């Protein structure tokens, strides 16, 4: 799908986390608990995955990975097919003692509920990254 030729609706969230870029990247690459309730994701260019959140299953196709910095993938409900995929770009930026996380999702006619879903996912990721700071 060529997103350049389609008018896109998008949502972008940016947050600063009190965790190292490595800790945030590790959390990003393990989608269960922040991005989905269950599933798997092969984080490499050409990788695939299946994620289920609130009973909704999504197929995932990884387009690009810059290890430790950037993950770009498309995801869609299997009944909709990849032609209706959203494009998600997650960027991890070290900021001295903290890390800035930028998440952008774009797709034609993005539903308004996606804004709320990314707010919830960002909060879950923040808690997960911060939990990795605590000794077990």
Q: What does this protein look like?
A:
The chain has 2 helices and 7 strands, in the order βαββββββα. With 136 residues, the protein is of the alpha+beta class. It has a single domain (3-131), classed as Alpha-D-Glucose-1,6-Bisphosphate, Chain A, domain 4 (2-Layer Sandwich). The chain has a 7-stranded antiparallel sheet with strand order 1-7-6-5-4-3-2, covered by helices on one side. A hairpin with a 6-residue loop joins strand 2 and strand 3 (48-53). Helix 1 (21-29) packs across helix 2 (113-131). The longest helix has 19 residues, at 113-131. The protein starts with 8 loop residues before the first strand and ends in a 5-residue tail after the last helix. 20% of the residues are buried.
């Amino acid at each position: 799908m060529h997103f350049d030729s389609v008018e896109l609706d998008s949502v972008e969230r940016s947050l600063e986390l009190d965790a190292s870029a490595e800790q945030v990247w590790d959390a990003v690459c393990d989608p269960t608990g922040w991005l989905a309730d269950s599933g798997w994701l092969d984080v490499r260019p050409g990788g695939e995955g299946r994620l289920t959140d609130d009973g909704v299953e999504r197929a995932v196709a990884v387009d690009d990975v810059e290890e430790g910095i950037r993950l770009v993938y498309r995801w869609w409900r299997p009944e909709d097919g990849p032609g209706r995929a959203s494009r998600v770009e997650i960027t991890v930026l070290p900021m001295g003692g903290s890390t800035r996380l930028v998440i952008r999702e774009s797709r034609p006619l993005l539903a308004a509920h996606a804004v709320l879903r990314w707010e919830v996912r960002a909060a879950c990721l923040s808690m997960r990254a911060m939990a990795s700071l605590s000794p077990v």
